């Protein structure tokens, strides 16, 4: 027996769970919203006059965001998105929940870093096309702490037939742990369990949850990291970035591999990196931005990565094997 309902519920698989906590908000569906320029980081309002969401606020909303097809690689614009979202968290103007149609590193890293270091910020989900379409058509989204997502709204009645109980489930309501699909070494598990300190645990947690979202099954060693000024210290960064960096230093995080940073940082950010053990130095990397050194088939290779991913890799000495957009490919795994 089936019936049409205005409320749907389904349990999220591990690969959809970025940051899971109780969160509820009125849905704001925003296609092609450039968070780096279209949102005021102090008020959380959409200020792009040519966007359909102009004048809307992101604060405490359920932001359903279709990811731009060109958003995979680390760019100055992507780094600015991360910085803006961290500032929205700092100013308590962030969405309650962010729903993506595929992982976007700039958004994902902001949510993971805010959760791990600032201990607040938006819940984060990545849904498949069917469930993303349902979320887009909802009026309100509610995420429960047990990874159940509840969608309500009058448009849902015409979009889905569900069983009498109202459950629209994935293949199974799995209770698999977030890192179960990733092959971890004993030292990785020590880091994740907090045996190496709170800072290392936080950085490892960011990397492991990133690995699950990108369906990476293992991690690789990192030989060194260079942090670019444009990522964590120049014009796009604000109090949210500063707060997260300061938190890392406050919990006595330290670096596992040689790490340098480019001059041009804001003084507070520079001081936090120095406290971690990084040193200012002209980049030996192939270009601007944040780069990590890793083992490659032809010797030691360089890979450009987002700033926060590079810093977490520097603290742990590890990086998920994701691919060229975010980290080393299979050739560097060991």
Q: Give the averaged pLDDT, no decimals.
A: 84
Low-confidence stretches: 161-178, 330-334
CATH fold call of the largest domain: Glucose Oxidase, domain 1
> Strand count, sense and closure of the main sheet?
8 strands, mixed
List how many beta strands DSSP finds: 17
Helix/strand layout:
Blueprint: E1 2-4, E2 7-11, E3 17-19, E4 23-31, E5 62-66, H1 76-90, E6 97-100, H2 105-118, E7 123-126, H3 129-136, E8 140-143, E9 148-152, E10 161-163, H4 186-192, H5 198-213, E11 219-221, E12 224-227, H6 229-232, H7 239-250, E13 259-261, H8 267-276, E14 279-280, E15 290-296, E16 299-305, H9 307-316, E17 318-320
Salient structural properties:
2 domains; 29% helix; 334 residues; alpha/beta; disordered C terminus; Glucose Oxidase, domain 1; globular
Describe the structure.
By secondary structure, the protein is α/β, with parallel strands linked by helices. It has two domains: about 1-165, Phosphohistidine domain (Glucose Oxidase, domain 1, 3-Layer(bba) Sandwich), CATH 3.50.30; about 185-330, no CATH class. Helices cover about 30% and strands about 20% of the residues. It contains nine helices and 17 strands. The longest helix has 16 residues, at about 200-215.
